[in-house]
Design brief:
Length: about 220
Amino acid sequence: MITLILISVIAAGVFVFLFAAALATGGEALAIDRRILLSLRHPGNLAIPIGPAWMAGAAKDVTALAGTPVLTIFTLILSGYFVLKRQWRMLALVLIAVLGETLIVDVLKDLFDRQRPDVVPHLVKVSSPSFPSGHSASAAAVYLTFGAILARTASSAAVRRYVIAIAVLLALVIGVSRVYLGVHYLSDVIGGLSFGAAWAALVFLVAHRIELRRRGRSLR
C-alpha cells in the first residue's frame, strides 16, 4: 500500500512538473502569471499588496520557513537526533532529501533560466532564476520528508494523517507566499511544489524498499 501511494505521488509530481514547465515556457501562461501577480497588488500602487497591513510581514515570515537558514537548522537538529540514536539510514534519508533537492533545483533553475517576475516590485530580495521556485521545492521536499518520518513514529492513523496534512499545508502556504511577495509566478510555485513532492516520495520509496529487503533477509 505504501509503495503504491509513493509511486502515485511520484508519477503525479512528475506530470504536474512537466505541465508547469510547459506553462513556464509558453507565452499564454506568462500572461496569466502576470495577471495573477497584478491581482495581488493595489492598482494605484503596485508596491502595496492587497490585504491588511500585517499580511506582507506575515508572508515574509512564512516564506522564511523554507529559506536556507531555517531549513539548515531543522536539518541539523534532526540529523543530530538520528546520530545520537545511531539511526544511520534515517540520517541518510534526511540528508539525501535535503541536499539532493537543493542540487537538482539549482540545475533546473540554470536549465530553464527563467527571469524573475518584473510585473510588480519584489517584497523580498532574490537573485537566482525563477523556475522552479526553490522555496516551494524545498518546502515540499523537506517538510514532507520530515512529516513522513514523524508519521512513522505515530501510534494512530489519525496522528499520521494530521502530521502529513500539516506538512502539505505548510508547503502550500509557503508556495503561496512566494507569489504574494511578487518574487515568483504561480507556474514557478507549481513546478517547485510538484518537484519537491515527487523527490520526497522518491527518496522515501527507495528507503522503504531497502527496509523491506532488509526485513526479508532477516527472516531467512
